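Record 1 of the preview.
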Amino acid sequence: MLAQVLSKSDVGDILDGVLHGNQPDLNDCIRLVQSHDVHALGLVANILRRRLYSDTASYVNNIILNYTNVCVTYCKFCAFYRPPGDADAYTVPLEEIVRRVSMSREMFGITQVMLQGGHNPNLKIDYYEDAFRAIKAKCPGVGIHGLSASEVDMIARVERSSTNEVLARLKEAGLDTLPGAGAEILDDLVKKEISPLKIKSAEWLRIMEEAHKLGIKSSATMMYGTVESEEQRARHIMKIAELQKKTGGFMAFIPWSFEPNKTEMQAEGMIKYPAGGLHLLKMIAISRIVYYGLIPHLQSSWLTNGIGMAQLALNYGADDFGGTLIGEEVVSATGARSTELTSDRIVSAIKQVDFLPVERDNFYNIVHGPAV
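->
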């Protein structure tokens, strides 16, 4: 059956090569993104995924703590931010940060706090250092997965310091890993359209490389479905692949679909609708195919596409369901869907599609499982 599918596919030669150990190059990746043969892509991605993880699927018990919505980059794709001085602007005090993490540890047994917010020019590095030290003192078993590369850049600007020094200080204070946010599409023509005040592509890659060299592992992301072309998507994927070959610091890749609801891009008529589920399955499959042997983990992204699509994504190359995301506010600001799940619901969702759920920690180490 596989041979027949590959023989009829417009990218069958690439897929056959990957199954036999070949690494796709940029031209291959462009062809994969341009292909409409989602069935063949998914079939091969699932084979690769099962080689690595058999029938297990991981998840993390975590909260998202959006510490401030004050932001001066005014990204057109964001419905969460508020300008300085806005009536709805907030910054979470240190005591409240510790209370939320501590309570979530006691109530839900979280092993990770994902701490992200806006680009707030009023916050100095002491705010973050104090928060990280306090979290570690109160909940040493909770991993701190915090601050995008663009947030690190903002702190460096406020402190008139280098991003490398900021990263070193944050690590010393307790930062464990970096999320991949702020990448969107690593193409400055795209960034000029959707986030002109945020860091450029080369800066995002440089800060990630600095983090990796300091021993700070990270995720990588791709927000697709705005103004980017298929070739720009492919180039984004390959830029991350090239950095991974250099540093080995990316633990996971998370492609996720832009949600236009209540954003400036929707108001201006730039993007009216999200990309949809088929695009998610395609991007998940391509990510597994290109990153096979490079980036170990691939998240199924239930947050922006829903539980049903995340379940399907497990058969298209994803091995991780993501997190419980208690307290999430960024995607919920679009009003698209509920953005919280209990661990029981994630376990149930994974079992429904005949995978074995395993709970992981911040570093993708298995802490419980498989859940049967």
